[in-house]
Amino acid sequence: MSNSSGINAPGRIKLHIVVPCYNEEEVLPEACRQFDALLGRLIDKGKIAADSGIIFVDDGSADATWALIEQAARQRPRVAGLKLSRNRGHQNAVLAGMMTADGDAVVTIDADLQDDIEAIERMVDRHLEGADIVYGVRNERATDTFFKRNSAVLFYRTLAFFGVELVHNHADFRLMSRRAIEALRDYREVNLYLRGIVPLIGYRSAVVEYERRERFAGESKYPLSKMIKLAMQAITSFSTVPLQIITVTGFVVFAGAMAVSAWVLWISLFTDRAVPGWASTVLPMTVLGGIQILCLGVIGAYLGKIYGEVKARPRYVIEQITQPAPEGTPAVAGQAPRETETVAP
Ligand code: UDP
Ligand code: MG
Fold it and tell me: pTM above the 0.90 mark?
């Protein structure tokens, strides 16, 4: 674990809390106060370094959010702000904050105080015990509306069907170590779905459970339309299952069409049941239809490959490399160290 600051006691990690904010003027002052107080407590307890901080990312808000962030940054030395040029969405705002933060560990959390900020201390503990990624997992959704709760269940089920690996009941409240963030940097895809990418990084992970509360103030910035967009993003960014379905359909329909064509041909050539003009109408339809869907299936198979190549995700992340044995260590236990070779004059 790197420790970037010389002024800190050895072993203390520098923690950054990244908070995406979109039109959050109602909650920002309170959120700022609570996050700052939490950092103060963790510093006093000796768990994190004194130069730890909070980065508020203004995701192109139209209200006083940025003015409040600037004000907080002037008043509180631990607070810093980052303003995106326009609204780019929650995922991009979180990423911008994470890529800017230079802490040894970075926690991302929403501004609305729905996630229990006390869980951050437990996340730091898990990290100090060796976890590179600590997922915040809510243990109940009782405070969510009926709609929100059920749409969330539907969301996880749909994604599981399409083979997208997700941590259940985990939103974007998590801690990542410096090396996990550096690994994340290598995922250059523009269509970002962090919840799907972070598990792909690997490394040791841990889970911290917490209770999700109601929004402190303001309204959800995630209406149904944005949730559907996010679900579509998750599926199309992580799964070629829809394309595979087309490929399989292509082969099945082609086989069926060929069978029907053979039957039409047989009726018209070897029986007298065919109405004049019937075979010459039906045959082109079945043959061409079959070939078309087969071609779509073949194109789908290649498209799936191109999709994988274009994303250029890292093929592996190395976790550790063995260090060479220190000088004088016996190569095999119990054996004397080999003498340095001397060249006879
Ligand atoms: N957010 C953002 N950009 C957006 C939408 C939301 O940065 O385009 C932030 C928002 O300010 C909040 C977090 O993302 O800190 C989660 O949003 P919200 O609480 O509205 O979502 P919900 O908890 O209802 O799913
Ligand atoms: Mg919220």
Answer: no
